[in-house]
Each structure stands twice: as C-alpha cells, then as structure tokens.
Amino acid sequence: MVEVVAAFARWLQIAANFILLGSCIFLIIAEISVGKNTLNEKPWIEKLQRLFPWLAACVSLGLVVIMACTLVQITGNTDSIWQLDKWLSIVTDTRAGQIWILRIVFSILLLILILYLHRTSKSIWLYNICAIAAALPLIAGTFASHMALEALTFAAVLPYAIHVVLAGVWLGALPGFLLLVYEKEESISLKASGNSELSLILGSFSSVIFPMMLLIILTGVVVSDHIFNGYYAALIATPYGWLLSSKIFLLGIILLIAARVRSEWLPALNHNKQMSDNLTSKENLRKWVGIEFLLALILLLLATLLTNSVPVKDLNIEEWPLPFRFSIATTWNLPNVALQVWIGLIIVFVAVVLFLWGRFHRWKIKQLIIPILLILVGALLALQAIAIRAYPETYRKPVESFNAVSIANGAKLFSENCAECHGIQGKGNGIKSRTLSTKLPDLLMEPHTLEHTPGDFYHWITNGMVSTDMPGYGERLSNEDRWDLVNFIHALSRGYQSRILSPTVIPDKAFIQPPVFFYGTKDGNNGALQDFRDNKTVLLVVFSWPLSQTRIDQLKTIYSQLAEQNITVIAVPSNELDDATKKFLSNKFPFAIVTQGASEIVASYVLSRRTIYYPDIIGRGTDYDHMEFLIDRYGYLRARWIPSIDEKGWNDVNLLNQQAILLNREKLKVSPAKEYVQ
C-alpha cells in the first residue's frame, strides 16, 4: 500500500510541476506572438492561472507524501511519520534526504511566486521567473535519479536534467494548448495579418517545441544508454525494460500526433481559408491534443514507476525469452555479414526518404505501404545478419564474480573434468580429442570465448552442446562450480590476450581486465584490488623467495619513489613460505606481503604469462619464478615484466617511473573495468 501511495504522490508531484513549467512557457510564447499585454483578461488564460496555486500546492504536498512514504519504508513503522527525530535523521543523514530538503525549499519558493502572480497584474517577466522556479524542483530531483546513483557529478546529471526540463515544457504546455483551442471564437481577435490569435500562438509554439522534441529524444537516448550501459537485453526481459519499452512506445504515438498537428491541422487555422476547414481543423486539434495530453499523463506514470524500479545494473535476467540475440561483435567478421548489414541499412534509408517524400506530396495510405514494407525488409535483412543463437541462461549474471579464488577453483575443475578433451591449456588437443566426432575449439585463440556471454558457457557446461560429444555437468557439479569453470575459461582467453604486453605501457590502450582478488597479510591487514580503483596504480609482484630477493630488496629501496608516483606495491609469493619467513618478510619490507590468498592470486595471474615471442602453449606451461604486473587506476592491466624473458625491465627505476608518469597523466575515455565483455 505504501508503494502505491508513494507512486501516486510522485506522479501527482511531477505532473503538477510539468504543467506549471509548461504553462508559464506557453504564456510567454503567447505574449510574444500576439504582442505585449494583449492577452490580459483572456478567458482561457484566467482558467489556466486559476489552476496555478493548486498545482504549486500539489508539488509541495507530493514531496511531503513521498518522504513520509520513504520514512515508513525505511523504518517499517507507520508511526514514524509523526516522530520528528525520524524526519530529522533521514533528511540530515542521507543524500536522498538532503536532496529532498533542496526540492521542498524550491517547491515552497515556487508556491510563494505563484501566489504573488495570482494576486498581481500579469507580465511576461513574472512568467519567466515562475518558469525558472518551476524548473528548479525538477532539476534538483535529477540528483536523486538512477543517473546519479553511481556518480553524482554535473556531467552525469546534465543530460537527464535537460531531458526532464524540456519534457516538462512540452508536455506541461498541453493544458494551455487545449484551453486555447477550446476558446470561443468571438473571444479570439483577428490580427492585421489575417490570422487569428489562435493560429499565431499555436504556430509559434509549434516552431519552438519542434527543436525541443528533437533534443528530448537525443537526451533520452543518452540517458538510456548510460542506464543500460550495454545491457540492452534488459529491455525485453526485465520489468524495468518492459516499463521503458512501454514508455518509448507511448512517446512514439505522442510524437506521431504532434507531427500530424504541426504538418496538417495548425496550417489550416487560417482565416483566409473556408470556415468549414477551420472548424474541422479545430475539432481535430481538440480531439487529438486531448488524446496526446491523456497519453502524456500515462507516460508520466510510467516514468514514475521507472524511478521506483530496480536499476538495470542490479537486475539479473534469469530466463532469456528468445531463441536468438543480436551481437555485432560475434558476427561482424563472418563472411558477407558486413555486406548484408550495409545493404539492409541502405534499403531502410532509401525507404525512409521515399516515405517522407510521399508524406510531403500527400500520398494515400495505399501508396505508403511500399516504403513501409521496404523499411521492414531492410531492417530484417540487417538484423538477420547479426543474429546468433541464444539460450535461457544467455544473459544470466554469474553468481561468482571474476575473482582469483573462483578462477583457481575453475582451473582445478577444468583439469579434472575438461582437460582430457580440451587439453591442459584449452587448446582442444586433449588425449581424447582425436576420438571425438567434432573438432574442439581453441579456447585460447578462438574469439568466441570473449564474444559469447558467460551465460552461454554456463548453458553449455550445464546442458552440454547439441550435436557434439560434450556432456552436461548440471548434475555432477554445483551451480557455483559451473560458474567457476566459466570464470576460468574467460581467464584463459584474457590471459592469452596479455601476450601483447611488455614492460612498456601502450598509451591510451586499456582493454585487458585482470581478475580481482582479496588478500591478507601477516599483520592482519586485509584488502582487495578494488580498493585502489580510481586512486592508485598497483604494482603486483609475483615472486619466489629467496630467488627474487635482489628485486624485492630493490623495491624496498625505491618504495618512496614509487609512492610519489602514486604506485602501491603488493607482493605475492609463488612458493610456499613457512611462518618464520612470512614474519621476516612482513617485518623487513614496507609494502604488503600477501600471506592469505596468495596461491589463488598466482594461479589466476600466471595465465597472463605469455608473450608474442614465447607463446608457451605446449604442455602444462611454464611457471616463472618472478612476474610483475602494472594495473592502472581504472582497473586495467597495462604492462607486465617477466625478468627471465624481458631481461631488462623495471629494475631500471627510470623506466618504471616513466610508465607511472604516463599512467598518471592519462585520462582514458573508458568505463571502469567490468567482469566481462558482453
């Protein structure tokens, strides 16, 4: 019940806010269109302005109800509504509460201005001030949106703020639009141009709104892209996606109505035309703009429900409903795919141009069927080329993150269950591979390892692969074990990508995402790789004691220099250390010496040992005594030094400093490292 009340309050608050903003802008346009002070005492304006105080009160009241519902949801007790200390706690100790305070202050300011406007002579400058005041609660509300959840920054919030304000101007102006259209004919004066006030105002409004609509669409695309962040499958497989898809569908209908109004019915509102044409146009305007306003209210309701829905990034698609999905990454390099896509897009482009040409020349519906069919044919041709098979688990998120512990367990499971066919290193050259009916893929080199989703691999491991000899392990392995196998398979492929790395950073090239890990030290300190995200570059040192003593001593010597370059050192022993050695190392060196979680870190990072000249794909692979990895502050693996292969490297402190300086100066246009590329 609380959720229903909260949703209604949000809808009422934003609808009232929109109407106030849009109506003020509409009145400004009206005054500019017909001349200053000529609209005073117009019946339609008086009707509109009588609504203003009630609408302003609804904005403030809606915000109060919203916070009251939030308080009940947090405390689980309806009595908390009447407890002042609970209100003070939520509005002062939470970001949402602080944003609410800002919104309520702006709403009260708006109410005061509206009451002043109601009691004084109307002027265009008052409408401007009220419009600005009506925009402020909407802008403040964007700081509590899904866009602001991850990064409360001006750049993150600006597109959504523009989207909301412009939507308010457009949809909120519709009541004024309707009141003007329903105005009695005798109250509408004829201007020297021969056009009525009605045609002048609505024509000017249409001209202003058209570019706004384009900007609304553009900012909507930007906002949606940020929210989905590549997870577009959620559009058709999650409640959030269903709501957004419905919103987009309604918006499309509203845009079609608006286009019809602009292109046909508004131009007909001219007193030089026959009276019957004018009456028909007015009737069409009344009917369809009324429908547009009703649809706009429903659209606002959907937008309200979206704000209360779980963000896309937190959703999990348990069951993908379609037997296919679209993937450009997987299909683009296949024969004829690119050609087919471009042909399809060209057909769509030509068909759209033909459709617009037909609309301009007032083609009948029967004549427009051909370009519509061509649009469908072109779209199907392009989409069919990039369609690949999908499974119910395709978009299911792993229950085990891409971490060192999971990968190490996956390596053990792979050796026990998969290596005899797929080979020890996943090359498809296991002892049973020659007896199989189908050729096994090379999990190191085949691109499908990275291009398919983790859910695809989970499906194959669980159920087997149709028309192949691969069995399913759904009954033999636990759910967690199967996800560990998925993590290991992806780690194999990513490790093979790392062969391009060297002790020298490739500028502005960040795409290798290493496993995250947790660690503990002898003195009881715990940490994780993610702790240094957005802060420090990590020098991960996999060493063997005492073989690596010289290098470890050098790192101790230059530790202060590394700290100045924003580098933190984490040293992980690759061999088993006794308690005395662990204590000795922990006391001797100023950086973290990992004693808990070391074997898992080594097992996952050794997969990144390969180089271009030493591919190391024969047998079990080489276990190097010493390896070092440079992980930037974005979470990407940027450089690697293996002394036995690279010889001179970061033991030259100047070279290491150069890499650090480069990483510190970089401002990569990439998102922070994720678990998977999908």
3D architecture notes:
- It is a single chain.
- The chain folds into 4 domains: 313 residues; 53 residues; 95 residues, Cytochrome Bc1 Complex, Chain D, domain 2, CATH 1.10.760.10; 161 residues, Glutaredoxin (3-Layer(aba) Sandwich), CATH 3.40.30.
- It starts with a helix and ends in a 13-residue tail after the last helix.
- About 1% of the residues have low confidence.
- The radius of gyration is 32 Å and the shape is globular.
- Helix 1 packs antiparallel against helix 5, helix 8 packs antiparallel against helix 12 and helix 14 packs antiparallel against helix 15.
- The strands form 2 sheets. The chain has a 7-stranded mixed β-sheet with strand order 4-3-7-6-5-8-9, with helices on both faces. A two-stranded antiparallel sheet has the order 1-2.
- It is built from 26 helices and 9 strands.
- The protein is α+β, with helices and mostly antiparallel strands and 678 residues long.
- Helix 23 links the parallel strand 6 and strand 7.
How would the blueprint of this fold be written?
Layout: H1 2-34, H2 43-75, H3 84-93, H4 95-119, H5 124-142, H6 147-150, H7 154-172, H8 174-181, H9 197-228, H10 234-237, H11 239-265, H12 275-307, E1 324-326, H13 328-331, H14 337-360, H15 365-385, E2 387-389, H16 404-417, H17 419-422, H18 448-451, H19 454-463, H20 479-497, E3 518-521, E4 526-528, E5 537-543, H21 549-557, H22 559-564, E6 567-573, H23 579-588, E7 592-596, H24 598-605, E8 627-631, E9 637-641, H25 643-646, H26 653-665
Parallel strand pairs: 5-6, 6-7
Antiparallel strand pairs: 1-2, 3-4, 3-7, 5-8, 8-9
